[in-house]
Amino acid sequence: MLWMTLIALAAVPPSGLLFGSRYLVADGDGTVRAWSVKDLQPDAAFTKKLNGDGLLGIASGDDGMLWGFDGTRAFTWDGVSERWDLVPSKPPPKPCTHFAVVANAPVGLCGPGVHRFTDGRYFEGPEFKDQVSGRGFGDHPHLAAHGSTLAIGTGFGEWGGHLWLLDVGAGSWRKHYDALGNAVGLAWTGSAWAVAWSMSHMMATTRARLHDSGAKPTVQGKDLRDRYLRALAWDDEAKALFGLEQNELVRFDGALGFKKVQSIAPVKYGPERDAVGVSSGIAAFVAVGRGQFLVVPESGEPLVVGGGKSERLRMPAVERRDAGAR
Fold first, then answer.
1. How far apart are CA 110 and CA 298, in angstroms?
2. pLDDT tens digits, residue range 306-316?
3. Could you give the C-alpha distances from 83 to 58, 80, 190, 206, in angstroms and in order?
4. Cβ-Cβ contacts under 8 Å for 209 (sequence gap 6 or more)
5. Whether the predicted model's global pTM rises above the 0.90 cut
């Protein structure tokens, strides 16, 4: 059994989403950019309005509201005045690395727990004793949210990984531990949590599972060698689960087997600890309608893929507005 201090690094990965007629991407370093959905061209005017508050991450909830985070504070987007409004927030006890909206409230993954900005409640992650033991979520966790549940996928290399489910209403945690796979992709399918369990040690292996609200596996795909699922997304229009398998867009069937839909422009794998596949290199993979997906790598230009196309979003310089006193 490996004992380790599982404190997440302070680096914030990029985040991205579809917001009305625009794609938005926060680079994790204080810049948010916008592109037109219609022609994939940079929207310089809207990008200028989005910047000036040093936002590290963006997220949206089930109600469609857009949230921004600067690490210690939360903001909401005012579509009328087209500016960020500071939300009364309580600062987190530890630096935050990932952000989400759960039950329409902003949260951050901050140290070994989850901080809710609006009321300051801190949901400390339970201690665990598997092949790896400790408390926390490692260097490259992956997040997804639905309703009152926050799903957190972790990976500790050859020592496996966890699916954690936090119910913020009940304040309860559930988990599933895989002794070999790392949970590098998460998606809510409308009835279950889909998880991509992947590993790259000596050779790549991967499998997909569906998990219920208690994190228990209910459907399990085959364990596949020389394959590596990197991210999952549920397309509500197609009522189907899609994934990124290395540099291919794939579609899953009911038994969680998958077939290639198309190739995508090459995306580098992310940093990997001890040469073991912990990070998939994909920060966000979002179904955006019409059979298309927004792909936000850990580094490099975002992509819009689908319909046989794979187009990079050009990253222009950002002109910042003056945010004024807060």
1. 19
2. 999 999 999 87
3. 14, 8, 33, 43
4. 194, 195, 197, 217, 218, 219, 220, 221, 256
5. yes
